[in-house]
Specification:
By secondary structure, this protein is of the alpha+beta class. The protein is built from 15 helices and 18 strands.
Length: about 450
């Protein structure tokens, strides 16, 4: 076990308590890798802070001694975002998981970063409120991680992404200074938008310790439907027309036939194993019924072979199980193999072209590549399957990733729709933004973190 920094453990223990500092091999290994396929890297120590002041004291110590600090929320990220590649102190935020305040009058909530998305919404449900973004890993994704990566998910087509809901943040800067940014007002033109800068910064500018979010009221009616097609083109054309003609869907999700097949296998479902689009509708009962009818007509125009509607929670759960569990089903079906996760986003008019291109890449390389994603906003996910310790698979996997990302850029898209840049995508940042914009980003990083201790080695190549 090679560690890089000599850390004064008694100093850290005096801040958070002896039981909340660890250099045990098991704890270091547990925080050496996320859900991506990047190589594990051990931190030198894991620290579990309990409040903002403790984080401030830890960062002040690290800043004075030029020791890297990496915030860690749930470890469910897919691009190596929290992997401590330079060692140092890993800040495990599990203890900071409280709902600090619910302001029902203004539809706002203030939480700590360690709270899990599903747990927050369970707390809010009794008040008739919810936080909408709905990441695919909602049962493990934390609010801190969602803010760090500007995460989104199945409801983004209607409700937007995490950034659209963050109103205020309490942050600790790399030198230990505690700052409050943002406002509880619905809008503001006062100064630079530091909240939006911090959201999506992947822990490279500071540590978020409190988050104030705006909320939405639970819809009166929720209804779901699945549309089954014989071809991907019919499925993606139906999605395009639904968005183009203004269908007010809360979610529009695509699974290709391969994804449906493995989900059937792993979950005991019996869905038709061809391209399938999943829809969800929120709103007043009459409005939802109108939208479902409109969507049925659009899908029929594109050779939909089956359109199944579910109005009850039980039936909706069955219909959505395939989409929600798609990635886990792929993992289970390929146990022992490497999964390379992809996350690109293109203008909706090019989504169908992007899906077809990924299938072309799979056919040309001979690799199995599953395609699914948030079709309604052009966000495409892929899972490329590689055999372990197979050099040819590794070479072809890199080739496939490069081709997919570069095609997305050529179509006016982005290298990262919702997973962030982290380690896995930083080689493409310059291609998307150009040298002038990347230099400006690096200058901002330098202002916040002149010693380069915050999650170093991420985002920038």
């Amino acid at each position: 076990m090679i560690l890089r920094y000599s850390i004064d453990l008694p100093t850290l223990q005096s801040i958070v308590g002896k039981d909340n500092v660890s250099t045990r091999a098991s704890d270091l290994e547990a925080h050496s890798i996320d859900e991506s396929c990047v190589a594990p890297c051990l931190p030198d120590a894991v620290v579990w802070p309990g409040n903002t002041q403790q984080i401030s004291d830890i960062l002040r110590y690290a800043y004075e001694n030029e020791i890297p600090v990496v915030p860690w929320s749930g470890g469910s990220s897919l691009e190596g975002n929290p992997v401590p590649i330079n060692g140092g102190i890993l800040l495990a935020m599990y203890r900071l998981k409280e709902v600090l305040n619910v302001n029902e009058d203004d539809l706002q909530v203030t939480v700590q970063p360690g709270i899990i998305y599903d747990d927050l919404n369970a707390h809010l449900r009794r008040l008739g409120l919810f936080f909408p973004p709905a990441p695919g890993s909602a049962d493990v994704a934390t609010l801190g991680g969602m803010v760090a990566n500007n995460s989104s998910g199945m409801h983004a087509v209607k409700y937007g992404v995490t950034r659209n809901y963050v109103m205020q943040l309490k942050c600790v800067l790399p030198n230990g200074e505690i700052v409050d940014i943002g406002s509880r007002a619905k809008k503001s033109t006062s100064g630079y938008d530091l909240v939006s800068l911090m959201v999506g910064s992947e822990g490279t500018l500071g540590v978020v310790t409190e988050i104030t979010l705006r909320l939405m009221g639970l819809p009166e009616q929720v209804s779901s439907a699945i549309a089954v097609f014989d071809t991907l083109k019919d499925a993606t054309d139906a999605v395009y027309d639904a968005v183009r003609y203004g269908v007010d869907a809360a979610a529009i999700e695509l699974l290709d036939g391969g994804c449906v097949r493995v989900t059937n296998e792993q979950m005991g479902l019996n869905l038709r194993e061809t391209p399938t689009v999943f829809y969800e509708f929120h709103g007043p009962m009459a409005g939802v019924q109108d939208q479902v009818t409109y969507m049925r007509e659009i899908n029929a125009d594109h050779n939909c072979v089956e359109f199944d509607v579910a109005g009850t929670p039980e039936r909706r759960a069955v219909l959505w199980a395939a989409r929600r569990e798609a990635r886990d089903s792929i993992k289970l079906s390929h146990a022992g193999e490497i999964l390379v996760s992809g996350d690109v986003c293109v203008p909706i008019s090019h989504f169908g072209e992007m899906v077809e291109f990924v299938h072309e890449v799979a056919a040309r390389t001979g690799l199995r590549i599953y395609v699914f994603g948030h079709a309604g906003d052009g966000n495409l996910h892929t899972e490329t399957i590689l055999r372990r310790n197979n050099e040819e698979d590794a070479r072809l996997g890199d080739q496939a990733t490069n081709e997919i990302v570069r095609r997305a850029l050529a179509l006016g898209g982005t290298i990262a729709g919702e997973h962030g840049v982290g380690l896995a995508k930083k080689a493409f940042l310059l291609e998307e933004h150009g040298p002038e914009a990347v230099a400006l980003m690096q200058a901002i990083k330098q202002v916040f973190d002149p010693k380069g201790i915050m999650n170093p080695g991420k985002i920038f190549a």
